[in-house]
Amino acid sequence: MKIATVVGARPQFIKAASVSRVLRNDHQEILIHTGQHYDTNMSDIFFDELHIPRPDFHLGIGSGRHGAQTGAILEKVEEVLIRETPDALLVYGDTNSTLAGALAASKLHIPVIHIEAGLRSFNRRMPEEINRVLTDHLSSCLSCPTETAVKNLKAEGITEGVSQDGDVMYDAFLYNLELAKERSTILQTLNLDPKSYILCTIHRAENTDDPARLTQILKALAKISTPVVLPLHPRTRKIVQELGLSSLLEKVKVLEPVGYLDMITLEAQSQKLLTDSGGVQKEAYFAAVPCITMRDETEWVETVDVGWNRLTGADEEKILEAVEKFSPPADRPGIFGDGQAAEHIVATLSKGLVR
Ligand code: UD1
Ligand code: UDP
């Protein structure tokens, strides 16, 4: 098959690194980079480090409001699809690039393959929730990372073309962890001892675009006695500056966004992870590091159910209490598959099940 893949944002490059490697053994892939993320350390660094094939098309869309960004991607992806006439279009996750790609393809009657299908926060105020619900309903092949995801789709009447394959981010984590041990020098560079710090990430719109929530989070960070390391997403950096909140980060070790090998090294050696990221919640579980999630709900409910992830919202007191006291149980059951999700997905595609 000839498969066109749309990627655009940081976590999608990491997912594509796992899938493209396997997909290209059996199929032809056309890689389309929308340009939603464009800074070197939000995009190129992942292509270089993870040996992701160079995009065949770079649409250069860049940042913008939801309508403008999604619309611009839709228009440009459509042009590529008309020119390339692929047999299917593959999208990952829940970004504006995901939705725009799925919309462009489905209007051209090109079947859509959605990897990371079936995730739900049940919070329609999140742009990601809108993107993932719509993409699932436009897709004919839906690869779910977890059992919950399969159930969520069933509850919306989607049962055809659904498979439970495991999580491609787990594939990426396992594949790269040994490499990271050999190559990453981030702990030495930052002069950090293993398990002596707390790694934090903040970028979700529900936190960054609400000054009250962002202030609560930053106030909590300012009070944590353990050193906090914060590779800062450009979205958050900009808003912290605009709101004049930089003084709350004076004690925090603020970094530019780091590459994946440095990131998983920092994660694995962190005492706890403090985050609002979807990917980082899962990686905490892969690395057996307790996770504190500064959101009101999560799509990765299993990690909370088994006691390895605690939701604190953006509540200063709850965050501080969890940093101090949260301790997961010894048991850490498998949730995310066998580390071969990409192989399972490609096996399904090779059976010609995409219609
Ligand atoms: C997007 C996704 C989010 C995902 C995240 C992964 C949507 C609606 N959101 O959020 O689900 O978790 O990617 O990181 O698709 N910026 C830069 N340089 C870059 C990229 C972004 O400066 O390379 C800044 C710009 O000011 C931009 C802002 O970050 O306006 C937000 O970027 P955008 O891609 O719109 O959303 P993210 O917050 O990155
Ligand atoms: N990540 C990274 N460098 C960073 C921050 C995150 O490599 O400075 C990786 C992280 O390990 C995970 C992915 O980016 O694999 C998560 O992306 P992000 O948090 O931007 O988005 P989300 O998963 O919330 O959609």
TrEMBL record:
Record-level Gene Ontology MF annotations: isomerase activity
Pfam family, one: Epimerase_2
Alphabetized InterPro entries for the sequence: UDP_GlcNAc_Epimerase_2_dom (IPR003331), WecB-like (IPR029767)
Keyword Aminoacyl-tRNA synthetase in record: no
Xref: CDD domains: GTB_UDP-GlcNAc_2-Epimerase
Domain UDP-N-acetylglucosamine 2-epimerase, residue spans: 25-349
Keyword annotations: Isomerase
Family: Belongs to the UDP-N-acetylglucosamine 2-epimerase family.
Matching PANTHER family: UDP-N-ACETYLGLUCOSAMINE 2-EPIMERASE
Record protein name field: UDP-N-acetylglucosamine 2-epimerase
Species name: Desulfosporosinus meridiei (strain ATCC BAA-275 / DSM 13257 / KCTC 12902 / NCIMB 13706 / S10)
